[in-house]
Specification:
535 residues, 16 helices, alpha+beta, flat, three-stranded antiparallel beta sheet
């Protein structure tokens, strides 16, 4: 692939954002009703006043609360803070005799990895990342940091990015709209090639924000990525460099073939959220009518309608309240009462919570649940997520680990000689959701172990206790430092056999041993004669 000029990058950037406009209606309503605080579709990015109220059209908070619960449950189930939620294991290309020592080395790398993650802002960034994932598409930028924070994680709202898909449905190219104040351009892009025209703009208005086009484009021939930062107004390129890995982590909750952007559970729950919101809006209007009411006033020369104020406790002077001409002030009859809303509100709220996976744990006011029930509910959550669980592992967890280890290797924090490609090194999730699924396999093995033991010698012959123990340890994510290596296992077996032989010798009855003071047995006559003849 040849070098792409700034004009070509800007052309592809514009085309990608133009194709994304087809999604604007869906995503805009999702953010408006369920994520109003992260809504950039209302014009804030275009220059409106920051800090404006974004909930003027929201009358019910069920969608907002359920989306927060969705992000919190996914984070606690897949990326629990201050816990190890994955494990590095040797792949199939590693020989069996080397897997033990390889596993010990990978455990050391894993400890350093999670030490860096705990020191960074990962736990904060993944929460915002999962909020955008509820809509359908989430993006995160993982870049090298400083000495204090070696890796920085920046969740980017999907409003600011546009995607281009490659073969097999993977995201290859990412375009981003980026605004930076003039005096921060040099710090944002160290070593940038700033043109004289752009420098004059920075000098004239250093506090004014300047918009750039940031692009990461794959090179299919060299198998690397080209990084561009272009100033659109001056049509100049500030930064161009090649990278072995893309700094972007883009995940889609669910994807339809032929579409680049994803569709999340919030898109499914949007009709119920809009219906519930409109129902409560009408209910509040009906309540205001029931409190204040609408009245008709007779213009009889005594009552002045312009001076009437309908407030509690007010006394309105009238000429009469009855008579042949009717009352001077009378309430206006309404068409009906809107009490039917109470019938559907609860059903709508339950549907919204089910769609956003907000009904998996028992209420707080219920009695304490056992650990078994909590595990079963975690398994139910994993089953309800369906294909999204595998997509989260493939498009989120594995790329985050691969990118973080790559940055740590570049900084000299580790020296990882193997590739995380599933063949040399594979990423195995050990988060609560993954453990809930692994427990099913562990239970099946333990049931087989119990049944085989009950079948007598024939069933016991089918069992490999060492292999079963290793299998359970792998499924539960037990580190290699707590388990014996192959050499240690052989030493333990030899010691056990030696102790067993010693115990058998000690348990022999005394009659079988020959007394030391007993005379040697007499030789038979034939043997004695033969010995005498030889002599």
């Amino acid at each position: 692939m040849m070098y792409l000029k700034p004009q070509e990058i800007l052309k592809r950037h514009k085309k990608a954002f133009g194709a994304k406009e087809n999604w604007r209606t869906i995503y805009e309503e999702c953010y408006q009703y369920a994520l109003p605080q992260r809504n950039l579709y209302d014009g804030y990015y275009e220059g409106n006043i920051p800090g404006q109220g974004k909930m003027s059209r929201v009358f019910d908070s069920t969608g907002i609360h359920s989306v927060q619960r969705f992000a919190n449950r996914i984070q606690s189930g897949l990326f629990p803070p201050y816990k190890k939620w994955c494990r590095l294991e040797p792949g199939n290309d590693i020989p069996n005799e080397r897997k033990g020592e390889t596993q010990q080395a990978l455990d050391l790398y894993l400890d350093k990895l999670f030490a860096v993650l705990r020191q960074s802002n990962f736990d904060l960034a993944i929460g915002e990342f999962l909020l955008d994932l509820s809509v359908g598409t989430a993006a995160m930028l993982i870049q090298p940091g400083d000495d204090l924070n070696p890796v920085t994680f920046t969740p980017v709202p999907q409003y600011l990015i546009a995607l281009e898909e490659g073969p097999n449905g993977t995201v290859d190219n990412v375009y981003r709209r980026l605004r930076v104040t003039g005096d921060a351009v040099a710090r944002q892009f160290p070593g940038a090639n700033i043109s004289p025209e752009l420098q004059r703009m920075i000098d004239d208005k250093p506090q004014e924000k300047i918009e750039f086009c940031e692009a990461v484009v794959v090179d299919p021939e060299r198998k690397d990525y080209c990084y561009h930062v272009i100033h659109e107004k001056t049509n100049t390129e500030l930064v161009y460099k090649r990278m072995d890995q893309s700094p972007w982590i883009v995940s889609r909750y669910m994807k339809v073939p032929g579409e680049v952007m994803g569709r999340g559970p919030l898109v499914t729950a949007l009709p119920d959220i809009k219906t519930l919101n409109k129902t409560l809006e009408l209910l509040l209007k009906n309540a205001s009518l029931a409190i204040s009411g609408i009245y008709t006033a007779a213009d009889d020369g005594v009552l002045n309608p312009n001076n009437i104020r309908i407030t509690p406790g007010a006394i309105i002077p009238v000429a009469r309240n009855g008579g042949p001409q009717g009352a001077s002030l009378a309430p206006l009859p309404r068409a009906g009462d809107f009490n039917v809303s109470q019938i559907v509100i609860n059903d709508l709220r339950m549907n919204i919570k089910k769609t956003l996976l907000d009904d998996t744990l028992p209420p707080d006011n219920m009695s304490a649940r056992s650990a078994t029930e909590i595990v079963e509910r975690m398994k139910e959550l994993a089953q309800n997520m369906g294909a999204a669980f595998g997509r989260l592992i493939t498009e989120t967890m594995v790329p985050i680990i691969r990118r973080t280890l790559f940055i740590m290797d570049e900084k000299g924090l580790i020296q990882l000689p193997l590739k995380i490609d599933g063949l040399e090194v594979k990423v195995v999730p050990i988060s609560p959701l993954a453990k809930a699924q692994n427990l099913e396999e562990v239970n099946e093995v333990m049931q087989f172990f119990q049944i085989a033991n009950s079948l007598g010698p024939g069933g016991v012959a089918e069992i490999k206790p060492d292999a079963i123990a290793a299998f359970v340890g792998d499924k539960l994510g037990i580190p290699a430092s707590l388990r014996n290596s192959e050499e240690e296992k052989q030493q333990i077996q030899q010691q056990a056999m030696a102790m067993q032989q010693q115990m058998m010798m000690q348990q022999q009855p005394p009659g079988n041993e020959q007394p030391q003071d007993q005379a040697p047995p007499q030789e038979e006559p034939a043997m004695a004669l033969e010995a005498e003849a030889r002599s």
